[in-house]
Amino acid sequence: MVDITKLRDIAKEVISRDDVRQVIGYRPGTYGFRARPAFVLEPADADELIFSPACINNLATYIVIEEKLPVPRGQEPDSRKVAVMVKGCDSRAIIQQLEEKAYDRDHVLVLGIPCEGVVDMDKVNARFPNVDKGDIALEGDKFVISFNGTKEEVAKDELLADKCKRCRYPTPLVSDEMLGDEVERFADDDFSDVEVLEKKSRDEKWAYWEEKFSRCARCYACRNACPMCYCEDCVLTRLEPMWMRRSVDISENTAYHIARAYHLAGRCIQCGACEQACPMDIPLMDLNRKFYKDVRELFDYEPGTDAEQPPLLSTFSVDDREDFIL
Amino acid sequence: MNGKPRIGVYVCHCGTNIAGTVDVEEVVRFAQTIPDVTVARNYSYMCSDPGQALIVDDIEKMGLNRVVVASCSPRMHELTFRKTLNGAGLNPYFLEMANIREQCSWVHEDSIAATEKSKRIIEAAVVKARRLEALDQKEVDVEPATLIIGAGIAGIQAALDIADAGFKVYLVEKSPTVGGHMAQLDKTFPTLDCSACILTPKMVDVANHPNIELMTYSKVEDISGYVGNFDIKVRKKTRYVDVSKCTGCGDCASACRQAGRFANEFDEGMGMRGAIYLPFPQAVPAKYTVDKESCLFLSKGKCGETPKCLEACQPKAINFELEDEIVDFKVGTIIVATGFDVFDATLKPEYAYGVYDNVVTALEFERMVNASGPTGGKVVMLERGKKKKKKKEGEEEEAPKVPESVTFIQCVGSRDKSVGNEYCSRVCCMYTAKLAHLVRDKAPDAEVTVFYMDVRAFGKGFEEFYDRVRREGVRYIRGNPSEIYRKNGKLIVRAEDTLTSTPLEHETDMVVLSVGLCPRTDTRDVIDLLKLSQSSDLFYLEAHPKLRPVDTASDGVYLAGVCQGPKDIPDAVAQAKGAASAAMIPMASGKVKVEAQTSIVDETTCRGCGFCVEVCPYTAIELVEINRMGWHVKAARVNEALCKGCGACAAACLSGSIQQRSFKDLQLLPQIQALGVK
């Protein structure tokens, strides 16, 4: 696990550098077990940084969604680096962003966190409801949950997030400084969850998704949390041309979710930020994972693993499968 | 365009092609009710002169500012009607085609449903037409030069025609000599002209023509640019011989330590050559070439004390220090004349080619009957792979045996799904007849048999020639042999005479496989250079099978000869002349119009990911740094001269920031909506 003192020391050292504008990390949340993003601008801010299994957010998102306010005439934009703490899965978002030229490699300073898994906050809240303030730590193969002066141990498997159960890259694939020792891969991905859905009939699939999509409130939290969704002007909410109306109904919701999933085909790095952000419990990763599986099987391509490779959908090979063309 | 849209809708009957299925009167009545439609008419053939006159008349008298033609595919007549609009003083891009033929009448039988569908298609077109914008078609200057790739008979003929017309030609040939496959042939069917006699003067002409820059033993490495302005990079491979000094005397070849050790490619391996060689005596240019792989000095680093060729060469032309040379130049048009490979007969193992010495391909046999070939034109039995015994003093060389029976098998690798070639190679029937005739001529006592599926004697003088050969005693048996094996020193061809339904075993000394013509194995290289398409037979695809047979989908790139599909010499020459005149059109006019339906980038929303740059097949897009509210960000920029308006970028763009003119989201979306559920 990561040594918090070391983490804070490094963050202090980094934010003291002249060429670093801010450090993005985690700090304790204001309620329940949650942790929240921290934007460290001064060395003193680094004292509240933490890392725990509650640090579920993908901070790579903040690199790309930061608003670029107009620079007054005669001034130059602040081009100092952004330092960001990333888990293994989050680091893949940075690689994919680099693949897509979202920024130059020297724009970011990556602080890698080798990660042994984070919790699924829904599972935690179900097990320990109505907790005002609590902490989660990982000790061996158990999560230690402490609140109101009590401590409880729960088997890791019971609270671990699903995405961690199939994580192939626990140690960040890109980093300038590693904040802990490398974590060996403790899981693998056999896509059995996707196969369950694939086996459903067309009608069953539609019934499944109709129920899920009809819940959608179109809050766009999934889009906003996604490290790969960072267009200046999202086509899905553009007024002209209006690809989908803003009304919340099954037809428009379905169109929104299909378009969102398609825009992530060959780009989704499986961090699960969208599903985690969804207030309506829509299993967005079901769609993303189907694309992810297809992309892997059809093109032997895994997004966010190699910054040098061109993005999948911008490449063409004459050997590409075309048996889907009638 | 000023004011409200005033749209004219013109519904074509296309004879009965459309009107036979679609109720055009009803469609017109409907079209008149669509908002902004000023007039709707129908006519038997809109593309005809009176049909077009209807449109011109309405534009002039009714002040139309948009035109929808409901007829065939825009691939067929969009250009026709754009010209009509232009002639009437309306911007040609105010035209929208509604395809109610290919996408409706041709594919439906139910007249009522087809009529309803036509209405939808037309309404969608009207909705799009409302949002069309005037586009400017820019002109660019054309470089008055042509690149011709391949110097077989097609490339040679095209080069001579263009050069004679006064334009510069760069003729690039991969092998050390021009001439291609035709140079390998002895006689040509059906007239029995000597191939060399009619070809070699042209070969000499291309080498001497002041307007032709001949580059043999060279390869086109890179092509960029667009019609009128292609940038070409050619690698001239070194021959290790200074061609300005080489006199072609041949002293080097006789001196070479490796003389006679390697199969000569020109003789299809029937004759031998050394490491330094001239493919054949009439080769153009008559300059020797050192084959790097077989030269001892170049491959092993040592050839005796000094290479013998160096000593033998009087003008001191051989220089092992020479290196490849890269040449860059500009052309306006390109002709691809890369020819073919003959079918690889080992892919038909039942014919035992490569197993038995005397199963030969027709091209090998062609070299044998050629007077300047390895056997001096004699038809003899072969002992391949057997080392010649050293002649003892005074011993006479044993004369090679003349076959008593020669058997031809047609359609080897053609019209054969089992090897993936469904097409007819178009020359094998006649060259088989010609070779059969030559056997009659050169080995009069030999029995000659031809196994065939059909004899396709379709060209001028072909049937007469086929008849003549049969009258000369060549026996034709209709049947496709199933196997060749050897028994008692003879080859046995097992077949069925399908005319009498009799199985037979035919005994013979020599089998000639009439191999078909195949796309070259390096076809892919040219495709990568020029973005050509292939038809299902894998030959290069012409722009239109009937009306644009020498053009390709890429403007300024033309096809000549067998690279486009199997053809005989007169057809290859005719196509070469066609390609030459097609290539000269833009050069003669000096200007060429470039695509107007190009892409444009909205730099305020472009996120600079470069997907469009990667997918653009014409390298028309680049990422540039722009200033966006004081920030230095990357954004895509389109070079409109290079853009062909394929739309790949628009499809790839996630933020919808790159749009293709006339196919913008704002134009397409309402069109799709109009087609949707009402």
TrEMBL record, chain A:
Keywords of the record: Iron, Iron-sulfur, Metal-binding
InterPro entries for this protein: 4Fe4S_Fe-S-bd, 4Fe4S_Fe_S_CS, FrhB_FdhB_C, Helical_ferredxn
Pfam family, one: FrhB_FdhB_C
Source organism, top-level taxon: Bacteria
Residue stretches making up the 4Fe-4S ferredoxin-type domain: 259-288
GO terms assigned for molecular function: iron-sulfur cluster binding; metal ion binding
Record bears the keyword Metal-binding: yes
Protein's name according to its UniProt entry: Coenzyme F420 hydrogenase
Species per Swiss-Prot/TrEMBL record: Candidatus Solincola sediminis
UniProtKB/TrEMBL annotation, chain B:
PANTHER family: COB--COM HETERODISULFIDE REDUCTASE IRON-SULFUR SUBUNIT A, FERREDOXIN:COB-COM HETERODISULFIDE REDUCTASE SUBUNIT A
UniProt keyword ATP-binding present: no
Organism of this sequence: Candidatus Solincola sediminis
A Gene Ontology BP annotation from the UniProt entry: methanogenesis
Keyword set includes Ribonucleoprotein: no
Domain of life: Bacteria
GO molecular function: 4 iron, 4 sulfur cluster binding; metal ion binding; oxidoreductase activity
Keywords, sorted A to Z: 4Fe-4S, FAD, Flavoprotein, Iron, Iron-sulfur, Metal-binding, Methanogenesis, Oxidoreductase
Protein name, per record: Disulfide reductase
